[in-house]
Amino acid sequence: xxxxxxxxAGFRSEILExxxxxxxxxEAEETTLGVxxxxxxxxxxxxxxxxxxxxHYQPERMHVVPPGTDLKQFHAPGGMExxxxxxxxxxxxxxxxxxxxxxxxxxxxxxKNILQLISAYGESKQLQELANLxxxxxxxxxxxxxxxxxxxxxxxxxxxxxxxxxxxKVAYPKHHQSTDVAKIYRFAALSRGVFVNPALTEPFGLxxxxxxxxxxxxxxxxxxxxxxxxxxCHNGYLIDPLDPEDIxxxxxxxxxxxxxWEEFADNGLSxxxxxxxxxxxxxxxxxxxxxxxxxxxx
Length: 298
Fold this sequence. Notes:
By secondary structure, the protein is an alpha/beta fold. It has helices spanning 2-8, 13-20, 22-35, 44-50, 85-91, 114-122, 125-130, 148-163, 180-190, 206-213, 226-233, 244-255, 258-275, 278-296, and strands spanning 39-41, 62-64, 101-105, 132-136, 170-171, 194-197, 218-221, 236-239. Strand 4 (132-136), helix 8 and strand 5 form a beta-alpha-beta unit. The chain is globular and about 65 Å long. The N and C termini lie far apart (41 Å).
């Protein structure tokens, strides 16, 4: 499925082989599926649309156990997030920092499809009037010192911002600490913003449950784990990651409707508590593993 999405995005097959070793990875996965007694997947989509197309797919051995998130670290805003150091770092890019935030957090990887998000924002005057765009794409000192993929993505981000003349509307901070990530989600939630994951494919989408746990509605790719997350939490919309108009329309639907925003924020908070706590993860995992361990006892 990764190969399919990357080919659809315009990558050539020989480039994918050189960069990602796709064929070798598929062969290793076939071997693993042939010998594993249980295969733990994060989502139903991962089973039916990814593993099911392998020769050694054995449906009776497949189980879904979604990852959890730390609800002590990721929680609803306390009201002071706009006073944090990372908030100040973001605000220094923005002419109107009091606007809602469209937030994207990801590695600087072509598969994360950040350029399509910038295009959607750049082509929508209404979005630009309603909200600022904040892109947190890892840490960097000098872009020229980064690996080829990261360097290309960050250079293209800057070129897209320039192309659409988005200066003062887009923040792209160079540095953040791991402890800042939850603060950034809460800062965006306090602004009544939206978290967006426009990846070409997303096996699960940990950032989505982190955002939801911080009271932030989400818009996410329709390929992969977000299908299950949004189905469970009812806290946002799925998007076609290759359609900038669809991305902008779904963002506008949330940002322009106060009642919808509050409904999605509340649903996300309660949905993560129910489906994506670490305790829920552990209990599901142990239910699957205990019978195997008991059978192996001598």
